[in-house]
Amino acid sequence: RDPVASKAFERGFALLAERDLSFDLQCCPAQMAAAEALLKRHPNVRVCIDHLGKLWRLQVDGGADDAAKLAAWRSAMIGLAALPQVCCKLSMLGSAVPGWPGDAAKEALLKDLVLEVIALFGPKRCMFNSNWHINGAISNSDAPHDADAGLTMAGLFERFASWTAHLSAEDRDWLFAKSAEAFYRI
What we know:
- By secondary structure, this protein is an alpha/beta fold.
- The protein has seven helices and four strands.
- The chain has a four-stranded parallel β-sheet with strand order 1-2-3-4.
- Strand 2, helix 3 and strand 3 form a beta-alpha-beta unit.
- Helix 2 runs parallel beside helix 3.
- The N and C termini lie far apart (34 Å).
- The model has no long low-confidence stretch (mean pLDDT 92).
């Protein structure tokens, strides 16, 4: 938003390609058009969109607010998915749909959104992540965390496994390990 800071940031961002480093991008849908423009100018910087693209507090009530949030998010994610150097981390689901582990309708929506992202980016450009804080402690932020609803890390990954049971073993290998190994070079 600040032209001086933006130019300085972009100069630093360009150095990532020179050093063969990646960038984890945490931004909300309203910021994604600017991010897409930046990433188009720097196609050699590998980027991972964090937290399912930062959908925020869907109510799952069929209302206009959810519809507007989803439309903005979808449009932005489609643009970013078109960039081959961009992948997406499937994490921080409780921020997108608070209380989802204890509500079948909320979980169904969240599952559909996760599968939508996988379809957009492909399994080789998506990775499941727990986003669990050290020792399972909850952070001081106001972001709803999956553990807030009583979900364990094991329970989260069991859900991921059930949501993707229809995919091939190879696709699931990418989602659960290989994408992260390739992106982070581990």
